[in-house]
Design a protein that fits this description.
six-stranded mixed sheet; Hexokinase, domain 1; 923 residues; 28 strands; binds 6-O-phosphono-alpha-D-glucopyranose; Nucleotidyltransferase, domain 5; elongated; binds beta-D-glucopyranose
Length: 923
């Protein structure tokens, strides 16, 4: 029998002696009895006070209040929905702790057909006392042995069994299969378990047992199993109440009201753990001396005070303490106690339930008392029944007050005048005690009159419910495995990244030597970064990013910029070259008019962010369009000439195009103006690319062995020779095939803003087709190209509002999602952007190592000027790039400078340098 201590009463021989004379007068004894039983009377006002105080504690805990520590824990259980009824499969259920010194193993078959139930097969095992109080490993090994013993008797395979673990103790859950025990209750006190993940302890024990391959996929509290196991026709139960050896309740709370969860929608099942409720103000007046004695002698004095007034483990003991008290005052059994009456735990719940059962009759009570070594008289029998009734009535009333608090909370959080709710009840006190449930229901109606409550006895103690949760967990675990399999190719390890770095180095060397390489390493004729002596007014154009800008750049001791953004309609970007350049000149003229520059012929620097073979600073042959541009009659043409022809077509406009630069070069120059160590330009925006200052001696095709030349790597095309195919996934292939330049810009299509959203969309489509997402419902919207913008990744991955952001975005896309869906979409975005940032980091590492080796340095300190919407807006991209560079180029101290003014300023500075050089050669 579970242990609960024995002092507070006279002990030993003298306690067992029967008083010869001095038994109390009948009047005194009824007073004594009255006093005793009166202590167990709880008034409606006291019940309402307990109801109110418990509700207060519940809301304090939901808000995450830390001090004073709320009296109840309100533990989220990761059960986010009541059963769909579609769950199916065979599951093993292990129940530990619900029914005291026994554990139960069940084999549950879910048919997936609502209302069609297959009777579970089960077996109960008594847990030896020394196991309940011994080492935790011993307890879990015992459980694993019982599992095998049960399964040995079942016609089942030894492989691929899925188990739901009903563990009826207060636990912090961090997932459906991760749960840390907070503290033991109810006669258990195994060492080495509190603070540990009980699922892992069970998995380890099953492993040690080695008989069956069992996957523990879910752990649930017994109240959750009780709630999930019951149905009221179409309406599922939303409250699970257990009164067995211990007592507790769970219910479906609004997720937004559970502070610890980052959720703003849907519901989550919360285990209240009301057993620990103790509010001296509310409970103090109803606690009797017997409660204090019981608590004092229990395994966990001061803890679970509320449970010790209601739980079946304690009701018998309370009755015993009262009977022993009355006996030693001579009121009962002629003042002759028996050893059993004086020994703790000798009166069980079953005894109390029977003795109270009006159908049991006096004879049965007599028999039970005789079994306890007592010689009851008829008056004793009647008084014992009154004591049992007093103890159990109070227990049921207190339980009702607590349940009424939960119902008030539900009513409040659902903003409902009248609450319709079904409460599943489980546990032997509910099942076996003759009057407990009727008193409970009657008192609830008294305390929560505006709630229409249906009480649904759980059919199998929650086994079915645990199997339901296990089925959900199994489905989610299967989904998680499919998600991991799908995302695994995106998780690049050190060796893979180092291989990309090495591949890029090789391609750089070949490109510089003018050999065929996916990296064209284009000389830019920019030989120096600005030295601060530049002066003058310059016009600049910035084409190729998200926006087309025209800028007026005034360079004095500092740089002032006036700019205007103009749109480039897709029809123009993919129209004729003439149309495109005429549109550019229109914008320039409009800008000049607005800035009062009309008729002035300022030197102009043209940031043209596409691969150009430059023949000089103001001559650049477009090699091929990228990033959704595809204007005809431009590839193979000198872009500066195309611009000059457009200027000519527009009479009365004078423009002096001095330089054409790539946006990477413009960005490097712009940042170089502030930090002379800036010798690399990096763009991660619509497209991606990098440039850097290379030793002229290494640049084939450009005369000269000394000095430097800025090289536009055009790394977007890296891998177009297949060197990245090992890393490319089917999703990359889908994006590439759907692009206007299939087979081209492979590196760019794994990194840049124009493509990441599409990669994510294809992965979401794939996961939906596997039934992992959106319940397998493909929506038209998600099949729409470019519907999932890359900026969504930045929003979704923002640390602050992750899941809410995901919901908002996906609901705007008309996608019905569950919280699990939201989490998975977040993980997909993280995997895609992480790969992009790591690949980008591997590229930068290749460049800085090239410069370090160029200069034969042990250590290199260098800065990188960076621009591009993805790099600037994504919450983690820049730090992931920097981390990858540190990992792959540890001898380089790399500083990333975000360009504030874009590369238009850089183009103007290149123009200014050109003008200064031209000036100096003229004088
Ligand atoms: C800035 C620069 C542009 C560059 C762009 C890339 O705006 O001024 O020259 O092309 O960044 O980023 P984006 O995200 O706009 O493609
Ligand atoms: C435990 C709860 C459990 C209840 C009923 C309490 O002692 O703390 O987790 O639900 O007993 O078994
Ligand atoms: C272009 C590069 C440009 C990069 C960033 C790529 O698509 O080929 O020239 O630097 O995008 O805008």
């Amino acid at each position: 029998m579970d242990s609960i201590g024995s002092e507070g009463l006279q002990q030993g021989e003298e306690a067992l002696s029967c008083p010869e004379e001095g038994l109390p007068q009948p009047s005194d004894s009824s007073e004594l009895v009255q006093d005793c039983l009166q202590q167990f009377k709880v008034t409606v006002a006291q019940l309402q006070q307990i109801q109110a105080s418990l509700l207060r504690s519940m809301e304090q805990a939901l808000r995450g209040q830390a001090s004073p520590v709320p009296a109840v824990r309100m533990l989220p259980t990761y059960v986010g929905s009541t059963p769909h009824g579609t769950e199916q499969g065979d599951f093993v259920v292990l129940e530990l702790g619900a029914t005291g010194a026994s554990l139960r193993v069940l084999w549950v078959t879910l048919t997936g057909i609502g209302g069609h139930r297959v009777e579970p097969r089960s077996q109960e095992f008594v847990i030896p006392q020394d196991v309940m109080l011994g080492a935790g490993q011993q307890l879990f090994d015992f459980a694993a042995r019982c599992l095998s013993e049960f399964l040995d008797a079942q016609p089942v395979s030894k492989q691929g069994l899925q188990l739901g673990f009903s563990f009826s103790f207060p636990c912090h859950q961090t997932g459906l299969d991760r749960s840390t025990l907070i503290s033991w209750t109810k006669g258990f006190r195994c060492s080495g378990v509190e603070g540990e993940d009980v699922v892992q302890l069970l998995r380890d024990a099953i492993q040690r047992q080695g008989a069956y391959n069992i996957d523990v996929v879910a752990v649930v509290n017994d109240t959750v199993g009780t709630m999930m196991g019951c149905e009221l026709g179409a309406r599922p139960c939303e409250v699970g109440l257990v009164v067995d050896t211990g007592t507790n309740v769970c219910y479906m709370e609004e997720a937004r009201d559970v502070a610890v969860l980052d959720e703003d929608r849907g519901r989550v099942c919360v285990s209240v753990e009301w057993g620990s409720f103790s509010d001296d103000g509310a409970l103090g007046p109803v606690l009797t001396t017997f409660d204090h004695t019981l608590d004092h002698e229990s395994l966990n004095p001061g803890a679970q005070r509320f449970e010790k007034m209601i739980g079946g483990l304690y009701l018998g003991e309370l009755v015993r303490l009262v009977l022993a008290h009355l006996t030693q005052r001579g009121v009962l059994f002629r003042g002759c106690p028996s050893p059993a009456l004086l020994s703790q735990g000798s009166i069980l719940l079953e005894h109390v339930a029977e003795m109270e059962d009006p159908s049991a009759g006096a004879a049965r009570v007599h028999a039970i008392l005789q079994d306890l070594g007592l010689s009851p008289e008829a008056s004793d029998v009647e008084l014992v029944q009154r004591v049992c009734a007093a103890v159990c009535t109070r227990a049921a009333q207190l339980c009702a007050a607590a349940l009424a608090a939960v119902l008030s909370r539900l009513q409040h959080s659902r903003e409902q005048q009248t609450l319709q709710v079904a409460v599943a009840t489980g546990g032997r006190v509910c099942e076996r005690h003759p009057r407990f449930c009727s008193i409970l229901q009657g008192t609830v109606m008294l305390l929560a009159p505006e709630c229409n409550v249906s009480f649904i006895p759980s059919v199998d103690g929650g086994g079915q419910g645990v199997a339901m949760v296990t089925a959900v967990a199994a489905r989610l675990a299967a989904h998680r495995r499919l998600l991991e399999e799908t995302l695994a190719p995106f998780r690049l390890n050190h060796d893979q990244l180092a291989a990309v770095q090495a591949q890029m180095r090789k391609a750089m060397a070949k490109g510089l030597r003018g050999e065929s390489s996916s990296l064209r390493m284009l000389p830019t004729y920019v030989r120096a970064t600005p030295d601060g002596s530049e002066r003058g007014d310059f016009l600049a154009l910035d084409l190729g990013g998200t926006n087309f800008r025209v800028l007026l750049v005034r360079v004095t001791t500092s740089v002032q910029i006036t700019s205007q953004i103009y749109s480039i309609p897709e029809s123009v970007a993919q129209g004729s070259g003439q149309q495109l350049f005429d549109h550019i000149v229109d914008c320039i003229v409009d800008f000049q008019q607005k800035q009062g520059l009309s008729g002035q012929s300022l030197p102009l620097g043209f940031t043209f962010s596409f691969p150009c073979r430059q023949l000089g600073l103001d001559q650049g042959i477009l090699l091929n369009w990228t990033k959704g541009f595809n204007a005809s009659d431009c590839e193979g043409q000198d872009v500066v000439s195309l611009l000059r022809e457009a200027i000519k077509r527009r009479q009365a406009v004078e423009l002096n195009v001095v330089a054409i630069v790539n946006d990477t070069v413009g960005t490097m120059m712009s940042c170089g103006y502030e930090d002379p160590r800036c010798e690399i330009g990096l763009i991660v925006g619509t497209g991606t690319n990098a440039c850097y200052m290379e030793e002229l001696r290494n640049v084939a095709g450009v005369p000269g062995d000394s000095g430097h030349m800025c090289i536009n790597m055009e790394w977007g095309a890296f891998g177009d020779d297949g060197s990245l195919d090992t890393l490319s996934t089917c999703f990359d292939a889908s994006v590439d095939q759907a692009s206007i330049n299939p087979g081209k810009q492979r590196f760019e299509k794994m990194i840049s803003g124009m493509y990441l959203g599409e990669i994510v969309r294809h992965i979401l489509l794939h996961l939906t087709s596997l039934g992992v997402l959106f319940r397998g419902q493909q929506t038209q919207r998600l099949q729409t190209r470019d519907i999932f913008k890359t900026k969504f990744l930045s929003e979704i991955e923002s640390d602050s509002l992750a899941l809410r952001q995901v919901r908002a975005i996906l609901e705007d896309l008309g996608l019905p999602l569950t919280s699990d869906d939201a989490l998975m979409v977040l993980e997909v975005c993280q995997a895609v952007s992480q790969r992009a940032a790591q690949l980008c980091g591997a590229g930068v590492a290749a460049v800085v190592e090239k410069i370090r080796e160029n200069r034969g340095l042990e250590e290199l300190a260098v800065s990188v000027g960076v621009d591009g919407t993805l790099y600037k807006l994504h919450p983690h991209f820049s730090s992931l790039v920097a981390a990858t560079v540190r990992e792959l180029a540890p001898c380089c101290a790399v500083t990333f400078l975000q360009s504030e003014d874009g590369s238009g300023k850089g183009a103007a500075l290149v123009t200014a340098v050109a003008c200064r050089l031209a000036q100096s050669t003229r004088v």
